[in-house]
Each structure stands twice: as structure tokens, then as C-alpha cells.
Amino acid sequence: MSIELTPGTWTLDPAHTEVGFTVRHAGISKVRGQFTEADATLVVGGTLAASSVQATVKTASFDSKDDNRDAHVKGAEFFDVEQYPAMTFTATGAEGSPERFKLTGDLTIKDTTLPVTFDVEFGGMAVDPFGATRAGFSATAQISRKAFGITWNAALEAGGVLVGDKVTINVDAAFVLPAA
């Protein structure tokens, strides 16, 4: 199966990328947020299976639009950004069509590395008005935060807990192929 991208090493365009999350809050709503600092390299081979991606997200860039929550989540009970300044993802395989595929890899949060599979949609490739070749992807995965050692919670008076275990990761990424 051929991939529709120009082979080579592509770099993440952080100005056109968002790494976000959604988690259940108090059992009744969802909290959304993002990490504002990420870096990634996409190496495109002749096939999907011959391609790879490595990504790093700075945990201190966590932003949920609530300063108190952000400070708590950056602290030792959640990400412990002082001790663990980054999360990483290294792809280990991909399968499917070039337009929609499953990207499996090792996700490391704090000191735990687990396999995670993202459902990925290829948005396409285009040359922008400035001559840069760009490619876009959307990816989604669901993880258990407890599996990564992020276990803090608080019981609710009506039953249940404050923070859900399942976290949905949403990535909208743009990559640029550096000029030869």
C-alpha cells in the first residue's frame, strides 16, 4: 500500500497543531484542555508501515483555562511537571489505508510506558502560498489515566468521583516538509 505523502522527514508546525484532551468531571460534564507545547517528527517512507512518528509534549504547558485546576494538575498528584517535564509517543506500527489508519506506539507519561493506538485520519497534503508543503492529520485515542499512575481523585457526596479515569486524547497536527 502506498502512502500519499512525499517521502522524507517532516516537522511539526506548532502554530497549526493542537494536542488536547477530554475527561469526565464530577460524572456530569466533560473538561477539555490542551498542551500548548509539542514537538514531533514524521518520517514518511514508501509505505504506511515504513513510516514513523515521534512526539514530545511538555507537561508544564497544560492549559484547561482554569488557573487553580492547571496548578493542581501540574503538581505531584497528577503530572508532577518538575520531575516529569515531558510525555512522549513513539510509533511502533501503522495499519489501514493511507486516509484512515491505526497508529500504535509507546506512550510514556511520568515513568510509565504503555502501548496506545490512535485512530488517525489523513487530512491531505498541499503547498501553501509561501511554497511550503504541508500535511494534516487528526488522531484520537482513549487511555486510562490510572494505568499511567495518575490516580488522585475525590469522592462526591452523591456518589462517584470527581475525575473520570478515561481520558480521550485529540490531536490535530500539521507537518511541514522542509525544502530540499
Q: Using the coordinates shown, work out and report the CATH topology.
A: Lipocalin
Strand ordering within the main sheet: 1-4-5-7-8-9-10-11
- The proportion of strand residues reads over 45%
CATH superfamily: Lipid/polyisoprenoid-binding, YceI-like
Q: Count helical runs.
A: 1
Major β-sheet, in short? 8 strands, antiparallel, barrel
Element string (H = helix, E = strand): EEEEEEHEEEEE
Quote the average pLDDT.
87
Spans where pLDDT lies below 50 across 5 or more residues: none
CATH C-level class is Mainly Beta
Instruction: From the alpha carbons, calculate the radius of gyration and give it in angstroms.
Output: 17 Å
Number of domain units: 1
Ends apart, CA distance between termini: 25 Å
The count of strands amounts to 11
- What's the helical proportion of residues? under 10%
SS-based class = mainly beta
Which of globular, elongated, flat, extended, rod-shaped describes the shape?
A: elongated
The CATH architecture can be named as Beta Barrel
Fold topology:
Elements: E1 8-12, E2 18-25, E3 29-35, E4 38-44, E5 52-58, E6 62-63, H1 67-74, E7 86-96, E8 100-109, E9 112-127, E10 133-144, E11 163-177
Antiparallel strand pairs: 1-4, 1-11, 2-3, 2-11, 3-6, 4-5, 5-7, 7-8, 8-9, 9-10, 10-11
